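Blackboard transcription, Thursday session:
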Amino acid sequence: MVAEQPRLPPGSASPRARLRWLLIVVAVMALLTAGWPLLNAAVADNQNLAAGSIRIGPGGRNSADIRIGAGWTLRPAQSDPRQDYVLHRGAVAVSIGYVSLADAEQTAGAWSGLRRVFRVTNPGVRLGRPSAVTNGQGLPGLSAIATGARVSGTVTDFVGPSGAYAIRIVVLAPRDAKLLTAATSLLLIRALRFPAASR
Amino acid sequence: MSFRSSIRAVRMSAALLCVFGAGVLSWEFVRFLVVFPEAAALAAVLELPVVVIGFALLRRLRPTRAPALLWSAAALVWGGTAAAGCALLANQGLAGLWAKSEGISFASDWSASLSAPLNEELLKLCGVVMVGLAAPLAINGPLDGLVYGALTGLGFQSVENVTYGLNAIVMSGGTNPDHAVLDSALLRVGTAGAGSHWTMTAVAGAGAGYLILHTRRRRLIRDAGRGGYASRQPADAPAARPGYGLLLAAAACVVAAAGMHLLFDAPAVAIEFKVAVNFALVAILYLLLSSAFVRRARDLLADAAAAGLVSTTEAGSVLSRRRRRRELRRIHPPAERDALRARQQEILAELDAEAA
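(Written on the board underneath:)
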């Protein structure tokens, strides 16, 4: 018994040609999907930062500055001056994030929102009860201890003077460096400045 | 290797790539389902009408008859899984390289518009090529490629919109997740939807259609040269060559799609302008391709009617969906109606291949 031949358009690809095209497609997919991440991993993600100020946010009134000392390195691949800076110094990893708040209701819920977002971005790390802190300009914020299986640190949230944005500072390090994280967190909180509050 | 096993290899590879892409997306976003279940569900539900209505409308784009439901769905799924999942990894990798080499300020402005056109357009285009390989009758030319490309782009766009909605929750600090998702959907669907991925991949898909047409024509000419065709030509006739016109058209479409994507992601250009340009470009290409297809189909039908291969009634009704339905309604015995339906589809299948 002869199997029925499938209908094919004139000039349709032969089985070999079809497999050749399949290999091309798979190669393109693999090259893009694995090639860029591998190349990215091969290039060092460290950029030394000079002591000075870094600005986060869209600029103008709705932005913030943080003065940092010497010895910090920036992770460029994970940083965006509008949204997030990822910095390292020794064992300490710092993330300084910018959050847009649409209205007063969101401003009031900034801390509870932070707790939930933190569960998404840092699974396995728990946040303790927040306590009041003030930055170098005397503006109030909230800070809590973060504890995970291997890391610990602090998470601090300041709502900007306009109420339209918040700055979140996450400081994490291995659990045996609690003093270091506490000192770094304190330094960064004191170094945070809102240009709009200075005027 | 037989025809059937080569087709099976293509289909299995495509299915595996879709599973891989879906796995990447799940790994990246599953935590939102745990922490923000309502907002995550809202982000998905808001895209459902876009998928359903877009799927129906884009399939209607094809003149004479809609593309096969199975392969239309396959194109949509490829866009939403294989292409979207792989693009996530590829874009992260390339964006990291831009930030490291050109600085974070440059990357903040330009990495999306320099990474996505290359990565995403190629990954989506692979889906159209896969449909052409998995179902040889599905894509006969640029118009088929345009429709399957648009469906692939729609799948990609819908999943990307869901991920944008989830990322908006983080960017707004998790303070009002539903509001963040709704705002994101309004922007992505309401403002940008008409000129987003479906337009770009439609243009790139037309390029895949030209490429398929080029390879078929080249193979036909080559086979004819080996067999009867060349021997029937006069001795002094010039040798038939496939030419590079179709290949150039294919390349132009892919480059145009990448250009549309670059414009769409470029900073400091009004979104309304970007949407208008992309929509206008795909509309012009569609009108050119579909009118040429219908013109060729009418000519072929007229020739077939003159040769007595189809009746004048068939020639007058078969190209129009409405007239075909009217013809079918006139016939009451189900067996005869089925026979007429089969006859209509047979004529249309011939026309699909010939008119492309």
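Lecturer's comment: The first helix of chain B runs from residue 3 to 35.
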